[in-house]
Amino acid sequence: MSALTKAGLKLPFSPTMQKETTRLLTRAFQQVRINGFLPTDEIRSHVRQTVDFLLHNRHAISLLADIHENDDETYVHSANTMFMAAAFAIRHQMEDAECFRWALAALLHDVGKTRIPEHILKKPGPLDLLEWEVMHQHPIYGFQILRKSPDPEIHGLAAQVAVEHHERLNGSGYPHHLGLDAVHPVSRSLMVLDIYEALTGHRVYRARSSPRKVIHYLMNDYSDRVSVPVILELASMVGIFPVGTFVENEDGEILMIQKYEDAENYRGEMTVLKIFGPGKKILPRPQKRKIPNLDPTTILRTYDYRAVGLTQEQWEYLMGGGAPGIT
Ligand SMILES: [Fe+2]
Ligand SMILES: [Fe+2]
Question: Domain 14-237 carries which CATH code?
Answer without folding.
Answer: 1.10.3210.10
